[in-house]
Amino acid sequence: MSFEKFFNTAVSSWMSQEGPDSDIVLSSRIRLARNIVDFRFPTLFSSEEARQIVSLFERAFAHRSYREAGRFELLKMSELQPIEKRVLVEKHLISPHLAEDSPFGACLLSENEEISIMINEEDHIRIQCLFPGLQLAEALEAASELDDWIEGHVNYAFDERLGYLTSCPTNVGTGLRASVMMHLPALVLTQQMNRIVPAINQLGLVVRGTYGEGSEALGNIFQISNQITLGKSEEDIVADLHTIVQQLIAQERAARQALVKTLGIQLEDKVFRSYGILANCRVIESKEAAQCLSDVRLGIDLGYIQNISRNILNELMILTQPGFLQQYAGGALRPEERDVRRAALIRERLKMEERRKMEGDER
Question: Which positions fall inside the Phosphagen kinase C-terminal domain (predicted)?
């Protein structure tokens, strides 16, 4: 498998699949934080210890296959260009912290990109499993089985009373972060998110932007995750999050129907204006592109737009990010150059989708 696959293909296989409630829930993610005994945590370890940990994983797991996920490839952050690391962040395969602040970091990526094992991030190991739609329980089962497989090769830092030991006290215990990525345009339009976010926080959950802590909710995409890792089982943490997500899904669907009734033609006009901008613009910034893509996706889900696959919007959400634009250009671009290329890429991709639809109709 070529390394270039991870950088040149916008949509991971899990992103192109439909999952439960995928009109609202884009993905479910389980992340497990683990550390290895006999090594100091990344906040204190030496460069030699860091290299030993990477070598350990390279020997044990690189080029090995894991079930249907395919073969693992090891990517060392020190050997990647800044644009390549940014692309991996934009695809949600590594964290911004690993890309920017981990000089001895690495990542094992599965061929289908459903599994990412970050090495020497905040902890020695961050196991990540990604599933389409609302599949938290399935993702937890997959992550737990992968966790057991890795533990067959390394000894985890574990305390009988506290659980798994981590660099940050907020991860001690299960070391589990469960999260879902949700598209919530109707709750934003009806201004309900302003009261929903504080209510969710009071339940021990947190609402973040598209790329996690400190990021903006571009295109009305929010990440909902647990904050509590100690004192609850993995299953209870996931079950609690699943319950809240189901409530958000119901609220978003109710808000969409309310908008259809109250706005009617104005809502349809908003959707098609955004589609018109995407199909015809010559210059567009990433924030405007994300908002227009959100409107168009809403229009697809409501049945206003029927000639475009929902998955094309998943692809464009990634393709229009700065890292991908520069990867395709073969080098760094100024912001204004990225805006021009972004517009051209969106126009061409929408034309391809229209041609595909016309060819299908002719058959």
Answer: 24-255
Is 31 labelled a binding residue? Answer: yes
Q: Is 208 annotated as a binding residue?
A: yes
Q: Does 180 appear as a known binding residue? A: yes
In eight-state DSSP terms, residue 65 is B
Least confident interval from 73-82, 171-180, 195-204, 352-361:
352-361
Q: Distance between CA atoms of 202 and 184, rounded to whole angstroms?
A: 20
209 is in an annotated binding site: yes
181 is in an annotated binding site: yes
Secondary structure (3-state) at 125: strand
Is there a contact between 70 and 111 (Cβ–Cβ < 8 Å)?
yes
Whole-number Å distance between alpha carbons of 34 and 154:
10
- CA–CA dist 172, 110 (Å, integer): 27
Confidence of residue 207 (pLDDT cuts 50, 70, 90): very high
User: What is the per-residue pLDDT for 4?
Assistant: 60
Give the pLDDT score at 1. 43
Q: Which of 210, 216, 143, 215 is nearest to 181 (CA)?
A: 210
Q: Please indicate if the annotation marks 92 as binding a ligand.
A: yes
Is residue 55 annotated as involved in ligand binding? Answer: no
Q: What is the pLDDT of residues 225-259, one digit of tens each?
A: 998 888 899 999 999 999 999 999 999 999 999 99
Give residue 358's pLDDT: 66
Provide the pairing of β-strand 25-34 with 125-132. antiparallel
Query: Is 256 assigned to a binding site?
Result: no
Q: Check the annotation: does 2 bind a ligand.
A: no
